[in-house]
Amino acid sequence: MRDTKTKGIWVWGTPVEVDIDGSIVSVLYLDTEGFESVGKSNVYDDRIFALATVLSSVLIYNLPETIREADISRLSFAVEIAEEFYGRVKGQDVAFEPAKLLWLIQRDFLQGKSVQQMVDEALQRVPNNNGDKSIDEINQIRDSLAVMGDNSTAFSLPQPHLQRTQLCDLDDKELDPLYLKRRDQLKQIVSSMIKPKVVQGRTLNGKEFVSFLGQIVEALNKGEIPSTGSLVEVFNKAIVERCLKLYNERMGRAGLPVSVDKLQQFHDLAKDEARSLFDKQHFGKHHAAQSTSKLDEEIKKVFRNFGQANEYQSSKLCEARFSECEDKMEHLQVLKLPSMAKFDAGFLLCNQSFEMDCIGPAKESYQRRMSKVYLFSLKKCKLR
User: Fold this and answer.
1) Measuring CA to CA, which of 73, 276, 341, 358 is 20 to 30 A from 112?
2) From the record, what ranges are coiled-coil (predicted)?
């Protein structure tokens, strides 16, 4: 039918547990809405395909009869993701590992060519002697698909039954035996391709997968996908937050209050560590500039907050020491027959404590206040 029965993406409710390299892995099967259904826009199709591409570790590209140019063009999203994420040096953390691509062609005739040959031929560059821009774009997609070549497999299925309109009502025993045989082979191939979902360098558990899904759906609802750059920023957002956390932790070691120079030194070192972490973990080769600017802006905000906190802590501490010295000077002033030597000794002891304990940006202003207190108290002592 032209109107789809599957709406959006359906998830099989009960995970199927399989043994992969000695580890029990829960496998989720997703069924996506068909392309080009009645009343749906291309953007809707792109988003469904985007979500399936990002979530899956095996992507089954189900095509009827043959491979059309539109089918290859539709892979452009996966191609862009490939360019951004799959092409990185092995061993480095990436947003997510590439989905293995299974071209599933449902047809009854191949005329001597295998499905793999048909796929390979369809992905060959198109001659463009006249420099046609549209053909250039087509060839760019083909060149990019080569990145996924190691993860691509082709398989064919014959039609289950001549009366395709009756398929929903037929039992397995009524279907074409060749179809049943090939279907079992397909199941084995898919099982052999399954692998755990890896995001940011580690295997996801159930809760982490749900969180990962939430990020993608949120981006979809905001209209950020299928723009590759926007998708990169979605993943980089988590990296920026992690880098900011590192910056905060390093700045927290400063132990406020400190001098302005010392706080600047802590800032420079913390910023370098945060930027180094970002450079190691950020996603995308061409779209990280926005995240870099975001990180710098957030670091500036945090640094300003630390500066304000430093001023407050410094003022609080210096005020306490200043008040102690002020009280000491007033006490010396009211003593009977105070000697200048005793007055100077008392102020020297008080000032030493002030100089040692009053630190940070408020120190300079409180030093001036201390000098005024000393001169005022000294004048009163002389008058007495």
Assistant:
1) 73
2) none
